[in-house]
Design a protein that fits this description.
Elements (H helix, E strand, L loop, with lengths): L2 H12 L4 E6 L4 E4 L1 H7 L20 H13 L11 E5 L5 E13 L2 E10 L1 H102 L2 H33 L5 E5 H12 L8 E5 L6 E5 H17 L6 E8 L2 E8 L31 H11 L3 E7 L3 E9 L5
Parallel strand pairs: 7-9
Antiparallel strand pairs: 1-2, 1-5, 3-4, 4-5, 6-8, 9-10, 10-12, 11-12
The structure holds adenosine-5'-diphosphate.
Length: 413
């Protein structure tokens, strides 16, 4: 071969990007291109004569040798590609990831092995990175999947609970409905019974009253003070009983027929004056009513009887539930509404009773020794509802009670 051709081949050989390494049957390097030297960190020509095992890391050399010997015995072509990867040893001790293709040829009767080598560290790292990334992704997906599963089962559970709750509520509603209907029925029966009984009481009571009046009349001649005293007591007690019965009958009427409103204009002063006058009959010894901040000219447009019943019940309670020599205060002030505040320093309302005092027939424990029916405040509340008024009670047991009645100045249906 002429010199220029040899130079040409040499340049081709050296300029290959892949490393080419040719070893003889002893495994010694007889030829290599620059790519191999660059790859393994050797100087030009430094590798010639070295055992190829010197390019293999210590731990792998034995296997490699066996492999090479086997290759000499049964030579064949191994193309570069997947699976033909091995580790190389850089001159500076660094481990290299390599890929190899093997081939052989004979020259002048001698066997030569030819290896095509390229570095795959970068590819390897990328593969590893992708693998890791995939693994992480898989883990993430798995985790999200398990979170999703637990979320779904949680949802299913709460759904089931919700369904049960709805069922229970429906049951409870049904039960309450039934109980309410029963209570209504009972209430009606109670009112009917009370009204019937009241009617029955009314006739003998009016007989007793007539008889007492007659005794009083006959006694005018003899003028026995004891007889006079007792007939008076009979008359006043019958009067009390009559009031109670009137309350009962009024309630029954209210429930059955409703109440026909009769609206008129009147001054609050007129109502209060007449109430205070009537109250004189039930005041105890030394007990008095004191009116402060009396806005006497303020006018109301309402059903006068209803306003009278409301204030009368509250005022009479204040008198009834406070003692001798006490003062019952009435304060009246108006703005958008008319406020009537009635204050006493009597027995007060126990805390546990406060929420019940507007219930029909309810009486607090401390009120039981005092005559009453538990109807008055119930009637008050019903009337107030009808005329858009309100009532507020502040009370402390043994200290006293302050009731504020608030009425709109004009009745509006
Ligand atoms: P009663 O006929 O018993 O007075 P009410 O309906 O008027 O019926 O009042 C209900 C209950 O509220 C009374 O039994 C009493 O326990 C309590 N109460 C109402 N007003 C007063 C008050 N001024 N002081 C103390 N307790 C009161």
């Amino acid at each position: 071969m002429d010199k220029s051709k040899e130079v040409f081949y040499k340049i081709c050989f050296d300029s290959l990007m892949e490393g080419i390494c040719i070893a003889n049957h002893e495994g010694r390097i007889v030829m290599n291109n620059s790519a191999v030297e660059e790859l393994f960190g050797y100087e030009k020509g430094e590798l010639i004569g070295k055992k190829i095992t010197s390019l293999i890391p210590e731990g792998q050399r034995k296997i490699h040798l066996e492999y090479f010997q086997n290759f000499i015995k049964h030579p064949r072509v191994y193309k570069k590609g997947k699976g033909r990867e091995f580790l190389g040893l850089h001159k500076n001790g660094e481990i290299l990831d390599l890929e190899i293709g093997l081939n052989y040829f004979t020259h002048e009767g001698k066997f030569f092995a030819k290896a095509l080598i390229s570095e795959i560290s970068l590819r390897k790292r990328k593969e590893l990175w992708i693998k890791q990334k995939n693994k992480n992704l898989e883990l993430e997906v798995e985790e999200q999947e398990s979170q999703l599963i637990s979320l779904v089962s949680e949802l299913e559970l709460s759904n089931r609970k919700l369904k049960e709750e709805i069922k229970e509520r429906a049951f409870a509603e049904q039960r309450t409905k039934l109980a309410l209907e029963k209570e209504k029925e009972l209430n009606l029966m109670q009112t009917k019974f009370v009204s019937l009984a009241s009617h029955e009481f009314k006739t003998p009571l009016s007989g007793i009253l007539t008889s007492a009046s007659l005794i009083q009349k006959y006694n005018e001649v003899q003028s026995n003070p004891r007889v006079a005293k007792h007939t008076n007591t009979i008359k006043s007690l019958v009067g009390q009983l009559n009031n109670v019965l009137d309350d009962f009958l009024f309630l029954e009427n209210l429930e059955r027929k409703g109440y026909p409103m009769n609206i008129s204009r009147f001054k609050i002063r007129e109502v209060i004056n007449s109430l205070v006058k009537d109250a004189g009959a039930i005041l105890k010894e030394g007990q008095r009513i004191e009116i402060s901040s009396y806005e006497s000219n303020t006018e109301l447009q309402h059903d006068r009887i209803i306003v009278d019943i409301i204030i009368r019940n509250v005022l009479y309670n204040a008198i009834k539930y406070s003692g001798k020599n006490s003062v019952v205060g009435i304060k009246i002030h108006s703005g958008k509404n008319m406020n009537i505040v009635i204050k006493d320093d009597g027995i007060g309302i126990p805390n546990e009773a406060k929420e019940h005092i507007f219930d029909r027939f309810y009486r607090a424990k401390n009120a039981l020794p005092i005559q009453g029916t538990g109807i008055g405040l119930n009637i008050v509340k019903r009337h107030l509802q009808k005329i858009n008024g309100s009532i507020h009670v502040e009370s402390e047991e043994t200290k006293g009670t302050e009731v504020t009645i608030s009425l709109p100045l004009t009745f509006q249906d």
